[in-house]
């Protein structure tokens, strides 16, 4: 849901790293949204995890929702 102000050019950004090296970087533009009580549902393109023997180990990821002005609306980090 969007509150108070219009979110112009909202996009989803995801970066996955292994040992500090970027393995995958993904961005998808979701659009612009006006404030409303209605929920907006967006289906993103599925992503695949690395495969094969060399893909073993720990990965760190960071996902963000950013608008055109560079404001981060939500951010979270994860590991797998």
Rounded radius of gyration (Å):
15 Å
Number of strands: 4
Main-sheet strand order equals 2-1-3-4
Report the order of strands and helices: EEEE
Structural class: mainly beta
Ranges where pLDDT stays below 50 over 5 or more residues in a row are none
Question: Termini separation (Å)?
Answer: 29 Å
Largest sheet: 4 strands, antiparallel
Overall spatial form: elongated
Work out the helicity level: under 10%
> Please, what is the average pLDDT?
85
Strand coverage percent: over 45%
- The helix count comes to 0
A few lines on this structure:
This protein is mainly β.
What brief labels describe this structure?
single chain, 80 residues, mainly beta, four-stranded antiparallel beta sheet, 50% strand, elongated
């Amino acid at each position: 849901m969007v509150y108070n102000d219009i979110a112009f050019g909202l996009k989803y950004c995801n970066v996955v790293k292994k040992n500090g090296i970027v393995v995958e970087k993904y961005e998808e533009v979701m659009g612009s949204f006006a404030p409303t009580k209605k929920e907006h549902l967006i289906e993103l393109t599925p992503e695949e995890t690395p495969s094969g023997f060399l893909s073993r180990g720990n990965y760190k990821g960071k996902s963000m929702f950013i608008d055109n002005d560079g404001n981060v609306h939500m951010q979270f980090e994860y590991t797998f």
